Structures
1.
Amino acid sequence: MTLVDILVVGGTALSSSLLGSVAGTGGTLVLLPVLVRYFGMQDAVSIVTLANAGANLSRTVMYWREVDRRVVGWFTLSSLPLTVLGTWLFTLTAPDLLTRLLGAFMLGMVLWRRLYATAPRKRDAKWFLPLGIGFGFLNGLVPSVGPLMAPFFLAYGLLKGSYIGTDACITVIMQVTKLAVFKSAQVLSNDIMFYGALLIPLMFVGALLGKILVDRLPAWVFALIIELTIVLAGLDFLVRG
């Protein structure tokens, strides 16, 4: 890689982490296309998974006091076995059709929220047990399910720090599981781990800058940013697969 290539990848990693820290999701959709250009799809997914694991770990630490531990517990309980299964299937094939279907579903979720808008209200955290089954499986199959999970977190009543911290805690657990499967399937080579590790400090910086912005955002602006991110991610999934 030339110096220009390194600057492009590094700058994209920083901006993707900043976006993920402000919107709570969407960073993968910024970073992944750039990595695919240099490394190919399968290696790019491995690198972005490692880099985002670092970014989400930093967000978890920053917002630890606001993490909804009941949501994390119920979601993780059911998601981990399905994450293993979905990741194993990903190592065998790239599910282009599934990614496009997810994009259509994400756009439909935003439309539904707009047509049937209600004030956020707390629900029983046990509802995240069945959600973890579906999202755990999808997390293994596709590069990012954060935008797809966002409407459910918002409907539960998570906003700003509680949203970002809870989402990050769940995501880092699933990503570490995903990386373990990649390693056992010999998809995660030493070179890929090296490139992913180089991006982690930039992801930390982006997460810190994002926290500074989130602390100054009104709740309604935060929710709007998330919805816009979901729409862009849905269009990206739908069009490009």
2.
Amino acid sequence: MADGHTRDVSLSVARALIQRAIDKAEQLNLRGGIAVVGASGALVSTSRMDRGGAGGMTRARSKAWISATQQIPSAEHLKRMNFVSPPVEQGFKAASPEALFPGAGGMPIYDGSTGSGPSGPSPRSEVIGGIAASGATVSPFIPPGVDPQTMIADGVAANPEDMLVHYALGLPYVGQHGDDHARWVAQFGEFPSDAGGGLGMAPAPRASAQPEHDWAIRLSDAVMAEAAARGLRVTLAIVDHRGDPIQQDAMDAAPTSAAFVSLATAATAATFQAPSHELAQLYGDGVVLDHLARSLPYAILAARGGIPIEVGGRVVGGLGIAGPSPEVSEELARAVLAWFA
């Protein structure tokens, strides 16, 4: 905060942290989503692993938002909410609509992150973001069939979700979800007296079995490269055919509203299988469209910027871009999709 203004973690650092979490998740045979949010609360990057499950990205983003904006682990925030009166708790939710899922597991990101984790908090450390994970098998519960040693981190019983986040940050393991030891014993039996450090924090090789995620990263990179060549700063969302996000990225200094707009136009294009602005032509731009928006469990937007993604003649998702004008955003999406494979 050299100039006195709130600073968000950069996209490059966010991407590196997410990749480390995905590497560890694949090593442990886990599937889910990871989100990084800036200190301002603005989205920076989110990634869903292959077969990561719908809804995980939203939960992860909520916990990352809490950690970034409240500047504490989301487990500490949850503990505080359990002690306040119901009106205070309800007031927080009303004033903080992005804190949809106030669960444990989110961690602040401190200044000094290099991609292998922050140097660690000090009395003068600055929180520049938050990170969290959630999804199909990313949770505090130990999945069946895993090696007991992989659920031991730094000599103590551990849970999968907190391991991913602490590994990504390069921090010593500290559980955020209650009694890890009790869950470990319930799953495996008596905890070994000679457990050693365990394998939970062992180095993970680069993930290599994420074809959908890799495809989304390539598409995102193509969009941002073309945007940079045109002197544009954009935020983009890539969603599946149900409208659930697979990848979201915000170029540094892109308008912060663009994360919401790009996700809504991407979901519109994917789920209606038409450019997002055509929704108004299909349903009108008045009362009917308002009722339609309220009937769906995800945000839609009848504005330019969202284009369906087709592979082999089938709509597999949607690409939404926002930041420049809607017309420029749509033209950019069409231009990239025209040559991307």
3.
Amino acid sequence: MAMDEQHVVERVGWLRAAVLGANDGIVSTASLIAGVASANSSQNAILIAGLAGLVAGALSMAAGEYVSVSSQRDAENADLARERKELAEQPDFELQELADIYVARGVEPSLARKVSQQLMARDALAVHAREELGISELTTARPITAALASAASFAVGAAVPVLVALFSPEGRVTWFVTAASLVCLAALGAVGARAGGANVWRATLRVTFWGALAMALTAAIGHLSGTSV
């Protein structure tokens, strides 16, 4: 009985956007809250700063991801248009080009040409996009999906330090937010690594280290300012 295989590459697009968004949401919002709280600000000012960071960050992530992935999609479309034109104007050259690709991978020349003819007869543009340009249905750019995933994951990540700040006792906001955020960052690193097939411990340590550094620096700046925001 045939079984469908699940590959990491099938979810690499949304996974990258989601992990990046959640990580950025936790780090940037927790750092902002830690900095404001360390400046001896009121609980109300801390919460306003956290909520503002959540909304602004989510919108910024969505816009940035959409623009970035749209640029990638435009480049892919330009390459496909060029390839479509070449297939129409010089099909024999494109056939040999595809056969040469297979020969370079170890296929016998006559067989490579035969396979190329069969594949091009079925869908010439698709096979050239995959083999020559590296563009396939699994890896093609999807701007809207990436933007929504980034915005949603940022908001979810940013909600953690905001909620912790809401229920933290006055004077202890920085410590509570930092601790909770580091735990969430470690969990995020582990989940992202497992979903992506990477080393769990290395990914967890990397994410936690940079998050801790960012929060420590902003808390230090807020503490040194010593003024209410």
4.
Amino acid sequence: MLSISVKEILFWKKTQLSKGGDHESLALLLDSVGGISTSDLNSLSINPEENLYLKKNLEFLESVWEDHLLNSSPIQYLCGITFWRDLKLKVTNKVLIPRSETELIVDIVFKIFGKTSQKLCFAELGTGSGAISIALALAYPLSEGVATDIDHNALEIANKNYINSSKQTNLKFFCGNWWSPLESFKGKLDLAISNPPYIPTDTYEKLPKEVKNFEPKIALLGGEDGLIHIREIIEKAPLFLKENGWLILENHYDQGEKVKQLFTKNEFTSVKILNDLSGVGRFTIGRYK
């Protein structure tokens, strides 16, 4: 561990931010790689001569920051972790970096089922880092959760994240495409959730390079209109949901009405488009009959 004064680290922060980037990304670097949390730094800033202890020296941290700035490398991949809700999750370029707007899916579940512990049977399709499923498994410890992903590497990361986040055993992981690993759950689910790939082909080509060049294409691309995976999930959902079971999907900002029509076409009721914090129709939900 390397000793450094608060004054020195604050000056270093100011210097790095003058090169570009944002406070949140630099805070993630300092916390996850340097071992100095924002709360630690804030609490000691009134005494700038106080010393802190770094896990890595400033030269190393600066090299990571410059990689982030010069190559548009996502800071979460460079650090190997991201924070999502109250979870600290391992991430690599094998999984999509979970977005802050996706956190609202958990809040939508709370609004439907309440925050008190229930014995829900739920499934997440395309779990990636496992963020949504882990948050729900922790919130509902009496529940039985299953999460699928087509990629073995993603499932390995999700499983590690679950083990690191909890001592519970109420979440299982299965490899396969969407519903295919869940034959034994037909007619048993109270809830199914998915944040599937929904980016249309022409939109994908215009994505920022920090997304297109680094994040897994399989987790982003949703076919020509962006709905190829969403259609499959909705069409097969009635086989797996209980009567009055809920389906919650995240979709592209301009897909809400089309997704709503797919829900209705497949006999879902109480279908709604829900906005994210920016007022964008980011989520479509429905109850099966």
